[in-house]
Input
Amino acid sequence: MRPVNDKLAADILEAGKREFLEKGFQGASMRGIAASLGVTTGAIYRYYLDKEAIFDALVGPAAGELEQRYRQVQQAFAMKPVEQQLTSLPEVSKVDQAWMMHYIYEHFDAFKLIASCSVGTRYEHYIDVLVEIEDNAGRVLIDKMTEAGMELQPIDDDLIHIMSNALFQGIFETVRHDMPREKAYIYMERLKDFYSAGWFKILGISGD
Output
């Protein structure tokens, strides 16, 4: 049975976070984390098998929760009739953006690590996962609109992906640049307005 020292366990995570933020995952080392705490690497190995385990402990819970909740939001929206989806789309988009930005800023350090320091970990493509969820939701909505007989401007999967990627790169840009919460909220509200209006324009339908 491994020894348990709650303070040391917390100190290891804090030191790991500092090490990753300063050097990135690839440049960080267990030796560097240990040195910053004044302990041996062996002391850390009693709690974490390697630096990836430390990184996962720092970001995994928040990353998993955000992804799961976003999937649920999109699945619930997809279950609505297409007319209701279109009527509520601008308002739903703002609500989605609000809870997502709130969650990201409530777990800012975790998402800062993902956005800026995750190369070499399984979170390196985490933002791409969120983009893919948005891609799929956009494709499903367009297919439903087409099946309902609506006349739309043609839009292919590549353009859907570019639009989705632009949205999430904008969201995480606030994190990469350590933007204050209040300023980030304002920027994201404007970005979402721009994004929603752009969709209506590209599809050739009214957003009113």
Q: What stands out?
A: Residues 51-78 form the longest helix (28 residues). The chain has a mean pLDDT of 89.
